[in-house]
Every structure is written in C-alpha cells, then in structure tokens.
Design goal:
This protein is mainly α. It has one domain: Arc Repressor Mutant, subunit A (Orthogonal Bundle). It is built from 5 helices and 2 strands, in the order ααααββα. Strands 1-2 form a two-stranded antiparallel ribbon. α2 crosses α3, α2 crosses α4 and α3 packs across α4.
Length: 99
Amino acid sequence: MTQDVTAAALQALRLPPRQADLLRAIARYWAEHGYAPGLRELGNALGVSSTTAVSQGRDRLVVRGLVRVDAHVPRSLVITELGHAWLAAHPTPKEETAP
C-alpha cells in the first residue's frame, strides 16, 4: 500500500466508536500477550458479554480491511497494514484526570 493510498484511505475511514474501541482492544491484547485475542477476551476488554456482538464487530473490521482472520484457525486475528496506520493516526483518547 503506497503512502498516498494509505492517507486517502485513512481520510475516508471513519470508524464508529465501538469499532474503534474493538480495534484498539485487539492491538492492546496483541501487545500484552503476543498472540491474538479470542472473542471472549475481546468481550471482557470491552465490557460486552455477547460473543455474537463481538464477532459482528470483528466482521465489520474485516470488511473495512483493518483486520484479517482465518475462520478455520483459532486466534488467527491480525491487524492489517491499514489497521496499523489507522491506529497510528487515531491514538487512544486520554482519560480525563481530576485535579
């Protein structure tokens, strides 16, 4: 993917908050554990008990080209080059701290 295509794709790619949270949770899990999260781990990280809801969110990220998954291989969820570029361009919002 060229730099121009990435910039144009990122400009057009606006994720709903839940999908952005999901992508960040996937990246955080990879960073902490060194392997892909399962649906339950992602649900726990997001405070969602339904693995179906997590699966649907993951599938939306796949359609957008931000993650890739092999349905026949457990823990095969990986963030694509576009997904990494999106994460770099949209850092996690800082939590407000009380004075």
